Amino acid sequence: MSNLQNLRIEGFKPLREIVFENLREAILDGKLEPGQRLMEIQLAEQLGVSRTPVREAIRKLELEGLVIMVPRKGAYVADVSLKDIMDVLEIRSVIEGLAASLAAERMTDEELDKLEMVCYQFKQCYQRDDIEGMIQKDIEFHDIIFTATRNAKLNSIAQSIIEQIYRFRVRYISEYNKAKELVEEHQAILEAISLRDADKAYSMAIKHIENVGNHMIETALKYDEK
Fold it and tell me: pTM of the full predicted structure?
């Protein structure tokens, strides 16, 4: 069982919600890995809570598809098949392309400055071989673009889609032997948006996600062979 830290209890949130959010984040971050059994007693001890909110959180995670219940065996972190990844990536490429094209038309100068800074910081993290930093800046880069679309529905759909494969981002980036391409692709998207070229932003974003997707599929196949 991965080491989880005791929760910081916020008075305005129900304990079950805090436990749910913590476990959900642990799954998405890869601290709780696909196929790992979720033991209520151990989780409760690590989080410093009783078993009841842990049990409630696990049920809610099951509804989201992040946990599966196996009869007479218990709860496990849900795995994601290669087909699942491919299906999600097909949708994500289109959504990212649309977001980039809308951002090229709607992004404010202030948001553009933030995007440029995050792009630069991503490059710095790459040069330092700072994997955690790259992951965080990659998330920020795409978040800025989606926010700039001014389309709440698109943003909501995107977050749901992206979270389904975020569990693999640590493995993906840490094993990516062409990480320099990520720097270049981010820069190409940034330049297209700064030029207010919606068509180019669309094509650069799709190319970026397709390249990311190809490597994720290769990585998933490699792990399936083990």
Answer: 0.75
- Cα 153 from Cα 5, distance rounded (Å): 34
* d(C-alpha 177, C-alpha 185), whole Å: 15
From first to last of its 226 residues, the chain has per-residue pLDDT tens of 556 766 666 556 788 899 999 998 888 777 888 889 999 999 999 999 999 999 999 999 998 878 999 998 999 998 877 788 888 888 999 999 999 999 999 999 999 999 999 999 999 999 998 888 988 899 899 999 999 999 999 999 988 787 777 766 666 666 666 678 899 999 999 999 999 999 999 999 999 999 888 877 776 676 555 5
DSSP string for 158-199? HHHHHHHHHTTHHHHHHT-TTHHHHHHHHHHHHHHHHTT-HH
Q: Does domain 15-77 have CATH number 3.30.230.80?
A: no
Beta-carbon count within 10 A of 109 CB:
8
State both tokens at 97. Answer: 């392309």
Find out if CATH 1.20.120.530 is the number for domain 82-225: yes
**Segment holding 74, helix H or strand E:** strand 74-77
